[in-house]
Amino acid sequence: QVQLVESGGGSVQAGGSLRLSCVASGFTFSSSIMDWYRQAPGKGRDLVATISSNGREIDYADSVKGRFTIARDNNKNTVYLQMNSLKPEDTAVYYCATYPTWAWRRYWGQGTQVTVSS
After folding, report:
1. Does residue 115 register a pLDDT over 90?
2. Residue 59 to residues 15, 51, 62: CA-CA distances in angstroms?
3. How many Cα atoms sit within 13 Å of 80 on the Cβ side?
């Protein structure tokens, strides 16, 4: 079955950095677009970054452009989110997600908490 396991969250001060990782299994990772979403308290789940299967096409939410970097290692079935210059408004639970080509729904990881204090 599809499994997505995030790690790397934590508490940092504004201006700090964190690197999130998501290890995937149960599907053909190298053929799948991978996404990072986040959900702040009391708000909906928003797309933060997306990366194509070969890593050549990347897109970011305007709110994180220039600060966050998404990357993937298809040999390790892992997608990363490097987060720099963190702001308090980046505080959220961050989720790794994918929608395999054969699937009828999106799959989510369990999420990892990121807390940025001012």
Report:
1. yes
2. 22, 7, 9
3. 12
Alpha-carbon distance of 27 to 58, in angstroms, equals: 21
Q: Are 3 and 96 in contact (CB under 8 A)?
A: no
62 in Cβ contact with 48 (< 8 Å): no
Q: Please, which residues bridge with residue 96 across strands? A: 36
Report the chain's mean pLDDT, rounded to a whole number. 97
Edge-to-edge strand list for the sheet holding 3-7:
3-7, 18-25, 78-83, 68-73
Cα–Cα distance list, 20 to 87, 103, 112 (Å): 16, 25, 8
Give the chain's radius of gyration (CA, Å): 14
